[in-house]
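Hi R.,

Here are the chain sequences for the assembly we discussed:
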Amino acid sequence: MVAKNDALDPLAGRAPLVLDNPSFKDITDAVLAPTERSSYRGWWVGFLVAVMFLGVLLVSIAWLFWEGTGIWGINNPVGWGWAIVNFVFWVGIGHAGTLISAVLFLFRQKWRTSINRFSEAMTIFAVICALIFPGIHVGRVWAVYWMFPVPNQMGTWPNFMSPLLWDVFAVSTYFTVSLMFWYVGLIPDFATMRDRALTKGRRLAYAIFALGWRGSMRHWLNYEKAYLLLAAIATPLVLSVHSVVSFDFAVATLPGWHTTIFPPYFVAGAIFSGFAMVLTLAIPARKIFKLEHIIHEKHLENMAKVILLTGSLVGYAYAMEFFVAWYSGNPYEQFTFVNRAFGDYAWAYWIMVSCNVITPQFFWFKKLRRNVTVLFILSIFVNIGMWFERFVITMSLHADFLPSSWDYFTPTFWDISTLLGSFGLFFTLFFLFVRWVPMIAMAEIKAVLPQADPHYDEHHATTPDKTEEAVAHG
Amino acid sequence: MAETKDWGMLAEFDTPKDIYHACEAIRDEGFKHWDAHTPFPVHGLEGAMGLRPSKVPWIALAGMIFGATVGFTLQWWSMAVEYPGIIAGKPFFSWPAFVPVTFELGVLFASFGTVFGMLAINKLPTFHHPLFNSERFKGHSDDKFYVSIESRDPLFDKKKTKKMLKQLGATHIEVVAEEA
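And here is the predicted structure of the full complex:
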């Protein structure tokens, strides 16, 4: 067999979850090093660039509030422009974190411990970016509280039959639950930072967030149960959120949108884009912060496999949309899809297809899955492709039922500056995260080290294979 | 700190294996007011300590039922009673359309129940604890494993307990003080 001497093989491989056989203390030192070093020139450069783009976002929003949504390229048929595209794009990215922390936890995928903190943080920051867009797209921002069921002097209530309102509940619940999940995971790690703090201010700050955690087993018992429950709660949640986002489109009786394939197809696309973003962020971070023995090829390869699976699902969905448009015999449906592929936005459609359908197919090859540079480049293509997917879907508005009102959407300067600015917000939060919060779940990583097993080396003399087994499977 | 008295005894162990077996022995001795402190949840240690299952799931369940009930009632009341309007020709009480929000609020309150229930049962936040007086205890969040036995335990006896902990393989034992 080929896989015989392959340490990364999923079945026969013996590569441990964490390389170099570190002790518990080594893990603490390696993970906390980025937060304890006093100066990082590279960090400052990246942080300041991100803050600059954050400034671009704030200026764009300020001008939007002052002048109104007319500063964007939206026109009469295309009432939903980049704001919705960006919203769906960011929410989609926000799916990998909870998937890794919840779904993979329930499936006992121990390799998740190396990347879960990192991707949960990414999730939270992506959802923050996402939440901005519907909020600023409403036009009359001073009435934005009408989105919520708040008793008011007009005696009105929001329309609970509208998918847009379901979205308010779905995305804000998702954000709240993800934040709590992340914070619960962080409590023991904040305690570590508190106990290692050298200055009084630092100790006080981390002590507040650690809530007086003292590693008590009586606490761990409830803590672990709570973590398991949160995973069980978040699993249907993560699948429901992008389904509800897809209802924004699917519940509208418009050709190209009104289809039952949307919820599963959106969820697959969200996981696809989320994992791509995790790769985009993790590959440089593991190198800069010297965490390559904790996030190693095994983890990256596993993520590439998820991308291959979900990318193929997305490709299947694209094909199925076309098939159903033809098979339904509905001329409006048929026109919309032919128009997507060969009409005014054909360029966007084919960018989407090449990035989302062709790119992941490279991951059939083991060599490419394990090549970090290839992974990084392809992950960026996936990010681009998934943005274009939402663009293509939204832009099918441009040719509506009345040919006289057809119009072409062109983004303005402010559309572009708001999108770039949202990346500024995302990376500002991310840069702060890597310096102030342990970016790897220390307590969880320690628990999957082979020596964490209380029966480690007890049977060493009789069956030497056992420990190797334990190393291989965590 | 003016007046101090003994709160209990803290014993340090080096490996999960050592603390696992130590906990089994202390459990079998019949101690009540004691605890283990570890940098990560040591697998099976709750059994070695003889702890009962967590009650957090019940709070989560209560949260879920509460959230889903509130969500559904809010939608029924506001859409069918307080502010009815004809939307897409559907009945006022179109319950299938109420499923997503009911689900989301059920999930939201289930996780509130889980997180705040867990913190409440654990009595967290507790920023002051006698164990934090021990400089050495800081290892609990890094790579050391501890057993603490409180002096209010009926079986606690400074000399005998210390001897027992020593025999169980503790690498360091100290008496922890608290403000009287």
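The CA atoms of residues 116 and 364 of chain A lie 24 Å apart. The two ends of chain A are 24 Å apart (CA to CA).

Let me know if anything looks off.

Best,
T.
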